[in-house]
Amino acid sequence: MKPTFNMKAPLLTIIIPTLNSGKTLRAALDSLLVQELQEWEAWVIDSVSKDDTLVILEEYARRESKVRYISEQDKGIYDAMNKGIQVARGEWLYFLGSDDKFVDERVLSDVAEELRGDRSDFVYGNIIGEGFNGPYAGLFDNDKLLTMNVSHQAVFYRSDLFRRLGPYDLRYKAYADWDFNLRCFRDAAIRKKYLDRIIAEYGPGGFSSVHDALFLREVLFPANLRMLEEKGVAYLRPIRRYDTCWRLIRNAQIRKTQEVDLLTTDQKVSACMAKMIAWQGRIPQGMLSVGAFSKFFMLISYLNYRLTSSI
C-alpha cells in the first residue's frame, strides 16, 4: 500500500535500488539534490545492506524530506524497482542506479519541460560511461531494440505504463527492463519520444553487464526470429548483423535446433540461423565463451554461409 502524504504529488519519482552501496550512494544522491527542478521525490529501496548504506540514507533523509527509503529483503534489483513503483506518487518514474549519477544539475529541469503536458508515455535520452564510445545510444526503433537495450538510466516512464503492461518480470534477473522496453515498443498505442540529451553517467559496475540466458531464450531469440521472417535472411548479409545473431545464440546457450521448438511454437528457424546453431553445437562451450575464439568461429561460419548460399 502506498504511504499517504499531505504534500502535492510530484512530477517525478526517482527510484534507487541499493545493496551495500555505501561507496557510491552519496554521489548518486548528491547529483539529485543539486538538481534545479524541485518537483521530485526519491525512494531508495534497500535490500538490507550490511555496510554503511543505511547510515547514509538516514543522513540524507534528515537533510531532505523528499528522500525516503525502505530496507527489507527482496528478490533482486527488479523486485526492488517494482517495490519503488508501488510507493511512487510521481506522474513520471525514473530509475537511477546507486552507482550512477545525473550528468549535470539541469537534467531534470530540461526533461521536465518535455514531460509537462506532453502526450508521450516513454521519454528517453542518452547516457555516458566507461566502455561506451560516446553517448549511448541515440534514437531507437523496434529493430534496434532487438540488438541493444534502452538503458533505464536514460528513460522517463509515465507511471501508468506499469499498470497497463504489468511490472518487471522477476524471472529475468539482468534484463527485465529490456523485456519491459520491448513491451513498450511493441505497443503502438504507447507514445515514445527521443531527446538528444545526455541524462546520466552510468556506473562501471552496472548489473546488466551480465548475460540473462532465460531472457535471451524466451524473449529476444523468438523476437529475432519474427524479425528475420519479416525481413528475409538477406538482412544478415552485413557481418555486424550476422555477428549480433551469432552472439545472441551463444549467450542464450542454444546448442541444438530442437531446442527452438521449446522456445516458440509459431516461428521457424531459417537455414542461416540453423547453421549458426549447428556450428556452435560443435564447439566446446568453454571455448565458445572466449571472445576471441567466438569471433574467429563466427567469421568462418559467416564466410562459409556467404559462399554456399544466396545470403
Please describe the structure with a list of short key phrases separated by commas or semicolons.
311 residues; 8-stranded mixed β-sheet; 2 domains; alpha/beta; disordered N terminus
Question: What would you note in describing this structure?
Answer:
It is built from 12 helices and 8 strands. The protein is of the alpha/beta class and 311 residues long. It folds into 2 domains: 12-209, Spore Coat Polysaccharide Biosynthesis Protein SpsA, Chain A (Alpha-Beta Complex), CATH 3.90.550.10; 213-308, no CATH class. Strands 3-2-1-4-7-6-8-5 form an 8-stranded mixed sheet. The termini are far apart.
Blueprint (SSEs and pairs):
Blueprint: E1 12-18, H1 25-33, E2 40-46, H2 53-63, E3 67-71, H3 77-87, E4 92-95, E5 101-102, H4 107-115, E6 122-129, E7 155-158, H5 161-165, H6 176-186, E8 192-202, H7 213-231, H8 239-252, H9 258-263, H10 271-281, H11 285-288, H12 291-308
Helix pairs in contact: 7-8, 8-10, 8-12, 10-12
Order of helices and strands: EHEHEHEEHEEHHEHHHHHH
Q: Roughly what is the average pLDDT, rounded to an integer?
A: 90
Sheet of most strands = 8 strands, mixed
Class computed from helices, strands and strand pairing: alpha/beta
Outline type: elongated
Summed up, the domain count is 2
Q: Under CATH, the topology of the largest domain is which?
A: Spore Coat Polysaccharide Biosynthesis Protein SpsA, Chain A
Classified in CATH, the superfamily of the largest domain is: Spore Coat Polysaccharide Biosynthesis Protein SpsA, Chain A
In CATH, the architecture of the largest domain is: Alpha-Beta Complex
Rg for CA atoms: 21 Å
Task: Please write the CATH class name of the largest domain.
Answer: Alpha Beta
